[in-house]
Amino acid sequence: MFTPYSLPDAFDPAECDRIIALASAAPLDDAGLVRNTSDHNIRRADLAWLDEREGAEWVMDRIIQLVARANREAFDFALTEFAESAQVARYGAEREGHFDWHSDIGMGAAAARRKLTMVVQLSESDAYSGGVLELMPDANIHAAETGRGTATVFPSFVLHRVTPVTAGERWSLTIWSHGPAFR
Ligand SMILES: O=C(O)CCC(=O)C(=O)O
Ligand SMILES: [Fe+2]
Questions:
Q1: Is the ipTM of this complex over 0.95?
Q2: CB under 8 Å to 137, separation ≥6 — which residues?
Q3: Closest atom of ligand 1 relative to the 161 alpha carbon
Q4: Could you tell me the CATH number of the domain that includes residue 99?
Q5: Could you tell which of 84, 159, 174, 177 is best to mutate to test the pocket of ligand 1, judged by most ligand atoms within 8 Å of the CB?
Q6: Number of structural domains in the chain
Q7: Who contacts 126 (Cβ-Cβ below 8 Å, separation ≥6)?
Q8: Which ranges carry the Fe2OG dioxygenase domain (predicted)?
Q9: Is the residue at 183 inside a domain?
Q10: What is the tally of helices (H) and strands (E) in the chain?
Q11: What is the pTM of this model?
Q12: What span, in angstroms and rounded, lies between the C-alpha atoms of 183 and 169?
């Protein structure tokens, strides 16, 4: 039940390009400084929030379908909303972009209600080295599928990380779905 669930071809290559272009339409924020309390040792990435970009509504429409499908097929959690914007992240080799082990359930009002996380691989896997999304749903580490456009869905409490990017750049899309407390 808590095994990460993979949805290949959640977005096609042209759609991945469009999402990266939307995120790049304005300067990206530093993950260490904005809407995020982590410091650079924990996370080094550049971020865009899709609710701040014009023309990203179709991305959210697709996300709703994908998360609903994953939840139906694999989790059956009580989900009520998407209380936070989707986030596009760029992890670049120029500063070994990474995100250390963490759970997505946080202290903020919305972050405390996160239940499912979905991460989409927006880059071609040979566009970068490192940058592996690893999950620890049990005593073993599971590497997420790296195919471009593949979505990985997992309970937001599952520990996960992105290993340092050592060459090239990796782009990802992350969204959280929210609901009442687990019981
Ligand atoms: O970029 C990724 O693959 C993961 C992002 C992530 O874990 C997060 O934003 O909480
Ligand atoms: Fe995360």
A1: yes
A2: 2, 3, 4, 154, 155, 158
A3: 7
A4: 2.60.120.620
A5: 174
A6: 1
A7: none
A8: 82-179
A9: no
A10: 2, 13
A11: 0.95
A12: 39
